[in-house]
Design goal:
Layout (H helix, E strand, L loop, with lengths): L2 H11 L1 H6 L4 H26 L8 H14 L4 H22 L4 H15 L10
Length: about 130
Amino acid sequence: LSPTGRAMRAVSENPVLARVAGVDVDRVIRATWMLGGALACAAGVMLGLTVQIRPVMGFDLLLPLFAAAILGGIGSVPGAVLGGLIVGISESLGVRIAGADYRAAIAFVILIAVLLLKPAGIFGRRE
């Protein structure tokens, strides 16, 4: 873990205690936003290589992304990765079985099933 990674974890757990320990919380928040923006930029470029670039090209991904995050558990990175794999594979298999018209419906059904059966997600903790 890098020093910036440790600082990010400290700020995410307890910003006040991190500030007392000498971590520049504002710098860590700026670095986190810049890293998130750079990753979003890279994802947009990769998506733009496969589909036509248009102002609303990311809206098609919102439902599957949200379903993957809920399935994995909010706040769990490994859960989000596993949720993304499950949603992606389910959509791919669903397109072969039901057709491409029902691709978004498959992610929606997964989202509804997770919210009904296990609202915290796979790796989520119950509050």
